[in-house]
Design brief:
- It contains one helix and eight strands; from the N terminus they run αββββββββ.
- The protein is of the alpha+beta class and 164 residues long.
- A hairpin with a 7-residue loop joins strand 3 and strand 4.
- The longest helix is centred in the first third of the chain and has 75 residues, at 2-76.
- 15% of the residues are buried.
């Protein structure tokens, strides 16, 4: 009887070794599952909430800078000479803000940036001499902004257009 028990114990020994081999496989599956859940959760968090609001804020700041650059370019284009003037000044502006084109409207003493996203548009005042009449004009993004000033001293006209 003792001899038969020894044979039975030996026959069970390989099964115990096989049972232990399941443990590393389960561990690897659990680690892989946790990694997939972590990556999926972070992706959802970033692309679902954090990044879109960050992009909107960045686009709003960019529109303010673009309008400030356009305003400075228009104000700096005014020549400080007497007599008849015919000048053109080019202002380099980005083609898009937030992956969308935009428009700059100039009218009277104001300049406005119009964007398809309502939260991005801005408006400010132009500081040009009183002898300059600012013509109502518009510029569509994509090319350089050209500021034209024509006329004699006391009767000058400022127009904004696209570079042709």
């Amino acid at each position: 009887m003792t001899g038969s028990r020894a044979v039975n114990d030996r026959s069970r020994a390989p099964l115990r070794e096989d049972d232990r081999a399941v443990s590393p496989v389960v561990e690897k599956l659990l680690v892989a599952g946790i990694v997939v859940l972590y990556v999926g959760g972070m992706g959802t968090l970033l692309f679902g909430g954090v990044l879109p609001s960050y992009e909107a804020e960045t686009s709003a700041e960019m529109s303010e800078r673009v309008l400030a650059t356009a305003t400075a370019g228009i104000e700096d284009a005014v020549p400080a000479t007497d007599g008849y003037v015919e000048s053109q000044t080019t202002v380099d502006l980005p083609a898009t803000i937030g992956d969308s084109s935009y428009t700059i409207l100039v009218s009277g003493q104001s300049i406005e940036l119009v964007h398809p996203d309502r939260g991005i548009g801005v408006e400010t005042r132009l500081a040009v001499p009183s002898d300059i009449t600012v013509q109502e004009s518009r510029w569509e993004s994509g090319g350089d902004l050209v500021v034209e000033i024509r006329g004699s001293s006391g009767d000058r006209r400022l127009t904004v257009r696209e570079n042709r």
